[in-house]
Design brief:
Length: 255
Amino acid sequence: MSKASLFIPCFVDQLAPEVGLDTVRVLRKIGYEVEFRPEQTCCGQPAFNTGYWNDARPVAERFVNIFRSAEVVVCPSGSCTTMVRNFYPELLAGTSLEQEAVQLGQRVYEFSEFLVKVAKVTDLGAAFPHKVAVHDSCHGLRELHLKQESRELLRHVRGVELVEMPYSEDCCGFGGTFAAKFHMISAAMGDAKAGYIETSGAEYVTASDPSCLMHIGGILRRRNSKVRTIHLSGILARASAPSERHPRPAAGGAR
């Protein structure tokens, strides 16, 4: 049996633990042994993005030391995957861990990327009889070049009607610390994204970034919208049995 190590981002650990649980369910469903290394912490992205590289570097070094022996690492977040794969080599350049960081980054995968490109699985036997729109998160789309992977997985979910929202590739406005430092701009961008989602006629909006879903979910609640948010893992973890077809409260502000 192949083994996958699970990296749980801060947002999932603190605010959306069901995303991690659903990720494990999906990986086990396709035959992977899942291990969780409890000493793991943040990937260091918030400090890195705000220019505090000296604070982010020890966190990155810790990540490399913890996961250096992992066969593959699966992460239910495009932004955290991007941090490890694309920015650790820059952050750790000139250190003793530079080359190891490059090699490890090649074994760290975003959730949908891992299923489609590594496990070669697109049909999870899931059922979710709802209209679903996909939000293309910035890091997943622009840094990891992922767009069709989530849609390919959703096309194999029983009962899903996949609808495309206008401007699905536009940023939702979260951007980590950007939402705190430039909250008025962030909120305006989120409001525009929520409008596009509602225009699509979707009942649910999904993504592979729980932080985006948290931001979008908050905006949708303020608009008293009927649209709910759900992480991609939450849809794929649904069994096809009728008793499993009624969704649980989902990540990112679902009600």
